[in-house]
Amino acid sequence: MNFPKLSLLTCLSLSLPHSFLALKCGQWNTHSCLGDIDIRYDADYTNSITEQNDLWAKQDGFYMVTQTSTQEMAHFNPVDLTGTVGLPYDDNAVVSYVNITTSGSRRYEHRYIIYPPAPQEFCDLPVPPGATNVLPYIPPGVPVPPGFAPVCGVNGYATFVESFKTSSHEKDGSLVNVGGALGFARDSGFDKSGDGVAYAIGERSLSFTGSSDRADGGKGISSKNWIFIGDDFNLARAVLENYNANTAALISSTSYQYTKIASEEDWVDMLQAAFVANNVQFDIASRGGPVPMERACLGARCPNETEWCEHDPECSESPYKEPNARLKAGVVAGFCIAGAAVLLAIVTLIFIRRLKQQKERIKAQFAARIAATIDLGVDANIAMNPDALKEEFQKIDSGADDGGDGYISKDELWAFMSSGKAGTMTKKDFDVLFLTLDDDGNGKVDYLEFINFLSTCGAYVKKEVQNKEDFVDDDENSA
Ligand SMILES: *[C@@H]1O[C@H](CO)[C@@H](O)[C@H](O)[C@H]1NC(C)=O
Ligand SMILES: *[C@@H]1O[C@H](CO)[C@@H](O)[C@H](O)[C@H]1NC(C)=O
């Protein structure tokens, strides 16, 4: 029997799925998933900022913030109305009200900045042409609201900064900048520039870095480090440094103190009171909108969904994709071995069935040949007549040159099988027949072997005899 040769290559090409049939990792037959050891590849791992690092949850809340700036220019400089350089207030006297809200994969920070009125000494100084010593400034051509006339030394000023961040595909609690906005009065559009990232460091620190394009065409780099001071995480300090990336000069360094306000209500009250106390020329509602906020941002335009989804891992595609799984090496071998075993079993089964069919064919033919000549008497159900069998044996034995020696030779059996009406047997079947008859393999069949074999084809003999009797009956009936 020839079994098909299974080279490993054949096996592989037959058993391995094509590359477009993606294999799932982590199955019994494939390698474990990258996502099991690397959360970036785990599509099910949370994108929630606070679940990734609860320091962000600790930072969430409402704050009152005081600050100290080293930036000299920030103090009482008339603002250049074309270049928007300068600030006619005291940066160090600023009080901010900050609302940090984290929700799922998104973080919102809204900061109201309130400047007290400038001192009279500053207001008495001459103002250069094209500049002003009081804000907000309404550019020529823009309708001035009724009663709007801010006066230096009388009115304070308010502006805002806000920023929007999302968690990242790193899934490590780091945040990326979606963008931000600055100011009621100046450019209040949503600004996507700034490729900032933020990290939680250890148990108490948050670090923010970013860069942005400066109005003067240069590049700004900023770094802000936040540290929780109190054990209840209600007090924090932060230092913000701004650099000019082109000149490496430090533009400003500001340190902040954040005090958490226990309730949103208190915070809203404090914020509104600060607008009044500092004589801010407009109320919040007329500029940034009512507080609590009813819009998603304070500026003229909020980040839209498309802009959020440039970064938000909830709605953007991760660069970390679980690759198609590979089969385990053992499985490939196992499959080949199992495959070959199955093939072998099938081939063997077919072989055994053929053998059985051949045996039955031979027996049937032999039985038919015997039954054609032997006189079995009337009752076919009775065991075959021993005398008749002996006679049959001798008849076959008498055939060739060595006739009557008590053994049936191969030639004698061939002569017997080829005579009569039992049909012709193939040479191949005949060889098998002789081998089966010749039990001891001595090349000749003795009487005992002859009887032995006949007994195994009893059923066929009986069938042949039955056919013969039916034929006789039919014959008689028709007579
Ligand atoms: C704080 O910010 C969140 C997120 O933008 C906003 O939904 C909420 O109304 C703000 N709270 C107040 C008091 O303005
Ligand atoms: C979102 O804003 C961008 C500008 O950054 C704009 O091109 C886009 O059409 C806006 N998408 C939607 C859905 O409003």
Automatic annotation (TrEMBL):
Keyword Signal included in the entry's annotation: yes
Signal peptide: 1-22
Pfam families hit by this protein: EF-hand_7 (PF13499)
EF-hand domain residues: 425-460
InterPro entries, per the entry: EF-hand-dom_pair, EF_Hand_1_Ca_BS, EF_hand_dom, S100/CaBP7/8-like_CS
Ranges that cross the membrane: 329-352
Keywords recorded for this protein, A-Z: Calcium, Membrane, Signal, Transmembrane, Transmembrane helix
MF annotations from Gene Ontology: calcium ion binding
SMART domains listed in its UniProt record: EFh
Annotated coiled-coil segments of the chain: none
Name by which UniProt lists this protein: EF-hand domain-containing protein
